[in-house]
Automatic annotation (TrEMBL), chains A, B:
InterPro entries, per the entry: ATPase_BadF (IPR002731), ATPase_NBD (IPR043129), Euk-type_GlcNAc_Kinase (IPR052519)
Species of provenance: Arthrobacter silviterrae
Lineage start: Bacteria, Bacillati, Actinomycetota, Actinomycetes, Micrococcales
Cited PANTHER family: N-ACETYL-D-GLUCOSAMINE KINASE (PTHR43190)
Gene3D superfamilies: 3.30.420.40
Residues covered by the ATPase BadF/BadG/BcrA/BcrD type domain: 7-270
Protein name: ATPase BadF/BadG/BcrA/BcrD type domain-containing protein
């Protein structure tokens, strides 16, 4: 029986699993960021090999393919340079790069039709049809979109604080944690050259950061308690994410809804708010065969939350090799992977 | 009688004027970006000297001070390095750096109390009291604020186009000019890996730009005709700018309202929309002495539009030297400067 290597390569961390054709995960490894578009080929390759070596138990072993789940632009990379490096670990066949959207989707289900919504640093939704990406919405990055995700939330938190300081915006409970995080003390009333001093310091501190680092202020919006400004931000985030998912809905495609990314899986209320905004759309837009609308809508609007795309990369490794991944195989992958991670 | 040198140093262009104590402008010069914070000291200094030399007619002549209008952070620069370099052109006294907000304000009036709102690439408002900045709002830069100004508008235009392409947003007349500007043709329906092809190209083109370059898409919002998406963007811009100005209003301070920056002076409807949003606030918040509210509001809500801070830097040069700048002197500065520029 053949064995397979599956990798979930993220921007900041990478996971790999070595598994059999029956879905039994034999080994698991982790490493740093493995995306060649954001990290550069050599650094990313090193991370991929390190996680893979961990999954193989440190010893080359024969496996017939490598399946790597990666973000968008990586799908167009030539795979030959990857194949050469994996040959040293025991690869006999090909390297296949799959979308991280598919890897996330298949971490929650073995069905070949459905929907995925991811809100981590960025936000993206996909309709999956016949195990391929049929439609993708957003995922357009921090300047053009990614509306409602981590960078967007962090930026909105900071904009709200900047506006509260000079009176453009309402007072907010977000002010104190942001100033504390940045080491800014006092000066929220005093002005120099007309400018509130704490705001001047905020400007100096924030523009010393790389823009993408603004996402680190996102979690504060979930810890702000009963604050109207924070609630407005999370409401707008949920509306944006619901809109992104709605853009890929198709009445002809039915199936599970998988949620990934920390804003949805750890963000508390956002996942629920997205679902409640969707209910009407989904009742009208999908699940019209057989089951009553009400039942169908109830099925679809209970999202499956997944932590990453590791199980899905393993599912894809088997599916693309022609192995039928039924519920039993899917459960075997999930359970044996969970055991290795524990 | 003493002469003075006044400079309006912007991020992309610099203007200088050589004038008498009676406000007669004798010479005018221009050069590139003269802000030491954004350009670096040496490049900025070169631009300042080049514009100054132009104003002096290419020959050193005695003048008793240099007054430079510059954006925010420059106010804290040490002036000694400037003084040494200007000595070679004929400076006998000091270099004084003034806020570009004051320079803009005094380009429209010689009164020492009032308000300025600037919306160019960034957006900032100030209350001027006794010829000093009493309160400043926004001007917090492209990540933290500058709401309603050029970068903000350009980014909103691009986000609207990205959203229209994948169905998150409404169709918009902004789509065609943005794709044409970026050289993207076709592919607004076809998908690759689920992604609309034109959107994939949009992503590639936009992230190859420096973020601040997004401001070049701002003017498209004013050329979109009767487009609901464009109108929503300009409505939100006007609301944000009105909010920024409202944050510095003080019932105790009365005086002229000066508008600067291309979004207000060349943006067509935005200045009017800001004013109409302000009317209620101003009637309630200011002008309560003597004149009826209605008359007061009408005076205040007719903004004075100015192209830059050149005349204001000249006004400041005289004021800071103890020269009384009355209406006659102000008119002399304005008229003689206009003649030199013609």
């Amino acid at each position: 029986m053949r064995n397979y290597l599956a990798i979930d390569a993220g921007g900041t961390s990478t996971r790999a699993v070595f598994l059999t054709g029956s879905g039994q995960c034999l080994g698991y490894g982790v490493s740093g960021g493995g995306n060649p578009v954001s990290r550069g080929f050599d650094d990313a390759m090193e991370a991929l090999l390190q996680a893979s070596s961990g999954a193989l138990g440190g010893t080359p072993q024969p496996f017939s393919s490598v399946t790597i789940g990666m973000a968008g632009a990586s799908l167009e990379l030539a795979t030959e340079p990857f194949r050469e490096r994996f040959a040293g670990l025991g690869l006999s066949g090909n390297v296949v790069i799959e979308s991280d959207l598919l890897a996330t989707f298949y971490s929650g289900t073995c069905q070949d039709n459905g929907y995925a919504l991811i809100a981590g640093t960025g936000a993206v939704a996909a309709r999956i049809s016949d195990s391929r990406l049929a439609a993708v919405a957003d995922g357009t990055g921090w300047l053009l979109g990614d509306s409602g995700a981590g960078f967007w939330l962090g930026r909105e938190v900071l904009r709200a604080v900047a506006a509260a300081l000079d009176g453009r915006g309402k007072p907010t409970a977000l002010l104190e944690p942001v100033l504390a995080e940045l080491g800014i003390s006092g000066g929220t009333q005093e002005r120099t050259n007309g400018r509130i001093r704490a705001q001047q310091q905020l400007i100096a501190k924030i523009y010393a950061l790389a823009p993408i680092e603004l996402s680190r202020f996102a979690p504060m919006v979930f810890d702000a308690g009963d604050d109207a400004v924070a609630r407005d931000i999370t409401d707008r985030a949920a509306a944006a994410l619901a809109g992104t998912l709605t853009a890929v809905l198709d009445g002809a495609v039915d199936g599970p809804l998988v949620f990934g990314g920390s804003v949805l899986t750890r963000g508390g209320s956002v996942a629920g708010a997205v679902v409640s905004r969707l209910s009407g759309t989904i009742q009208q837009g999908t699940r019209q065969q057989g089951a009553s609308r009400q039942e169908g809508a109830q099925n679809l609007v209970v999202p499956i939350l997944v932590a990453d795309g590791m199980a899905g990369a393993a599912v894809l490794a088997l599916k693309r090799a022609g192995v039928k991944v039924d519920e039993a195989v899917f459960e075997r992958i999930s359970a044996s992977l969970a055991a290795l991670r524990a």
